[in-house]
Specification:
Four copies of one chain form a homotetramer. Chain A is an alpha/beta fold and 286 residues long. Chain A contains eight helices and 13 strands. Helices cover 34% and strands 27% of the residues of chain A. Chain A has a seven-stranded mixed beta sheet, with helices on both faces. Chain A has a four-stranded antiparallel beta sheet with strand order 2-3-1-4, covered by helices on one side. In chain A, strands 12-13 form a two-stranded antiparallel ribbon. In chain A, helix 3 runs parallel beside helix 8. Chain A is globular, with a radius of gyration of 21 Å. Chains A and B meet through strand 11 and strand 13 of A and strand 11 and strand 13 of B.
């Protein structure tokens, strides 16, 4: 990345006086130059959230030393925390079906370096998109799904995901509902794009539902996948205006534009460690 | 209005070849200069919708003659139709509770002439807003509502509305659910602003519901009131972005801005005869 | 297209009574089923604009007979007009430089059939994007540009364009200023995406200009190319919010999302014959 | 305010290691509970910006002691800084002309307590809006402006402003260009709403300019007033979509909605000490 190597500290803990002072002193004592800092106090839940980006080359200690030294502070304050290193590229598995708009969009960002990750493979229940994926030099796994018995599909998907060791799994219009065992094997790592402005129009054929209700805007929602369908923590949403002259296939067409944009934004927030989950809600330090 | 007097023809009917030709010939034969024309063919339902604005001074016939002459065409094509005269100011009753944002917004538009209507009265279950209404020279009816028995309130509201002979009743954050008998006494004339992006968050305290779900945008919906709560045909909607740092009272504050804008737009569409209802959906020739 | 073959009539002429009646009768007399109709009266310039989509299979005459029969009406009313046939796919040449975001976006739409055109070739002053273009089976012409003398580049571009016989030329971040002779050889056919909200920030490095001025939104503009730089008729625009934490490279990244969306929308309007140009302005029947 | 009394520290200074640590320790040592914290490092200019809200009741020292104790730190780091007390209501003078939309909008917010300020007076070059201002119990100063010689107007305006001792002066569609001596008497305190998306359409009749250029969105800009016309630091902007069917008077009508919203947002940012100016740009900790 053009901005140089940084270590990204994210944490949340019960709120109290002195957290920022303690963390900031910890960083400053090791020469750390903070290039971006975001804080949030959730008054309702009494919880504090923090994200700080520190220039790696400003620190007098190594990454491992930094992590080790922070442990006691984290323990004292009861923090959930992590420190990531922007020099370590994340591994992102893409799961797709037949529609190409989200895949092309992500591949375009990946080609340009904007999406600066490893893509160990693309997984799909159809062969449709093999060509463009392989042209980009990315392995493509076709895992057919038998509508009468999807378990073999999900078993194979589980094996492929286990092999890929992903930091993140993107359901880029994958169109299958992941069973609980797959969800729970990758907690907080599965990012989905749902083609409605949740909580409106959960489940199948949301554009048809929107058309039937006569709404004047349609939307898309990027969220973490949990076992409950379309009910996970929301990362990002957006909408687009439609009118009475639009039919369902127009909704689909407009919707693609908002889906790929919302997915790309939400995924970026996730990969930049800008999303902190608490309960079923997210803090997004965008 | 600066654009001169116009007659506005709106109609819907089963779609078939030749409707536009017939209507356009009817207008042209009487010298009518069409300043705005909108058509919509609903392929799914096989229904056609039309709205045309004709300069009154271009016509060789009077309003009454125009209406009389159009009758046979309407009958032939099975049209639901009306012709309104922009020189006849509509009568709009406002119903409010304690919150002033929508009321001030409408009064500002009324003072400037943008909202070019008669306001026979404002009705409220609270005294709060009497002063500013009466300062504008508009009668204010305080009709208290007893939470234990609201029927007397609604009976009195019904009487006030019957006296006012409104073309339109605006629920400008009135905060009471109108009983079916009031709804059915003014079909297609009651316009409400609901403070959520319907169909999400129907009913009470939608901002609290939105906060609990963790959405990233909140919205407002202007719709016709029908006996089923918050389920009437939608006229207009819009949204505004919020984030994790916003609490429910911030939602309320942001929400006011979107509520008054959406209500004003939806009301204008209604008053300009730009909204044609079919089933539970609207065609809005904006 | 899923909606069946249609003939699209677009016209503009001096406004007067009876135009719609005459056109509608012409269509109806030949059995024409109008599936979409849009009209606009420009009161300031006294000019009338019309677009009608007619189902081809509803007409009792052929395309050629329809065109021939309409000639006398057009002459009588002094119309600029055309009738296009949606069964004839348009030929669209893409011109690119090194950036892939607009190209990938258009290719994705083309793969899915949403962008239902012939792409005879992609032209570029760099080799960068050859691979993905050729993988899609589209010829790629690399025409190098010598900064010291660009005339040979433009001469070769002119030859390639002449061979391609394009109905439309899309400058998808081509980054070169076309000389007047190329512009005038393809009047009303060259569509550009400029990475600012015109008329702000004409010319080079608009994101740097926007950063220097401290605006709170950045935009993109899809417009027809005329010999005057970035001054042609605007087809479509949109904006995206940025804030003080964003640097120029963030503007570039956000900007790409809005550029590709605005270009795709503007191009679709153009290809669907929804854009009527009058002077330096457009009527867009979206 | 519902959130209790807070002290708001805002500062900017040359960026270096340890600023946050020092400030956070200073607050924590006095028991300060930080309810909101925002930081920004401007890499290009090497400048650091900070805003922190501290609960007054958490501090072991008084406001005066806090301010006095911070002085040495500010000096050491070369800070521009201030600490404001949310219990001290700011004094805001409104300047208007004949148009009521921004005034009504601000009065509505003031009535509801959302705009929690003193309004010592409203100043206008017309009598038009006296009634509604005085009904709200606010003094109204009519200061006529002679187009042939505006100096007496500005002299009287200067006297009124000097008497009012404003913390902020809002040009709520005041429509006069303040002379340099008025601007320089209230540096950083005069907030204007300009009815275009600056830097497009500086000066008079921006909607006419927008119409002539054929843009597809119109906007409004809230900015600080400096002697150079419409060139001061931008606080907030937004846009609204228009199309070919809209005439200049439609632009004016749509524009009012965006003007009042943008002004209200920008003013709130200013009054909450969320805007830090550096050169001709703003950092807005929204």
């Amino acid at each position: 990345m053009h901005r140089g190597r940084r270590y990204v500290l994210t944490l949340s803990c019960p709120d109290r006086v002195g957290i920022v002072a303690r963390v900031a002193a910890f960083i400053a004592d090791r020469g750390g130059w903070i290039v971006e800092a975001s804080h949030h106090s959730d008054a309702e839940n009494g919880r504090f959230f923090l994200r700080q980006e520190v220039r790696a080359d400003s620190l007098t200690v190594s990454y491992d030393e930094l992590v080790a030294a922070f442990g006691p502070i984290a323990e004292e304050f009861g923090m959930e925390w992590r420190i990531t290193d922007t020099a370590v590229r994340k591994r992102v598995v893409l799961m797709v079906s037949k529609q190409e708009h989200c895949l092309y969009d992500l591949l375009s960002r990946w080609q340009s370096g904007e999406l600066d990750v490893e893509i160990p493979c693309v997984v799909s229940n159809h062969e449709t998109l093999r060509g463009v994926v392989e042209w980009h030099g990315i392995p493509f796994h076709h895992v057919p799904a038998d509508p009468a018995d999807k378990q073999p599909h999900f078993d194979e998907v589980s094996r492929v995901l286990a092999d890929a060791k992903p930091d993140c799994i993107v359901l880029a219009r994958y169109m299958q509902i992941l069973p609980p065992e797959v969800c729970s094997a990758h907690p907080g790592k599965i990012v989905n794009i749902h083609h409605s402005f949740l909580p409106s129009f959960v489940g199948a054929r949301p554009y048809h539902q929107a058309y039937a209700r006569g709404v004047k805007l349609i939307g898309a929602t990027c969220h973490y996948v949990t076992p409950e369908l379309d009910a996970g923590p929301i990362i990002e949403q957006d909408v687009i205006r439609i009118d009475h002259s639009d039919q369902v296939d127009d909704y689909v067409r407009y919707g693609k534009d908002i889906e790929k944009t919302v997915l790309a934004r939400g995924l970026r927030f996730h990969l930049d460690d800008r999303v902190l989950v608490h309960g079923n809600k997210t803090v997004v330090f965008s």
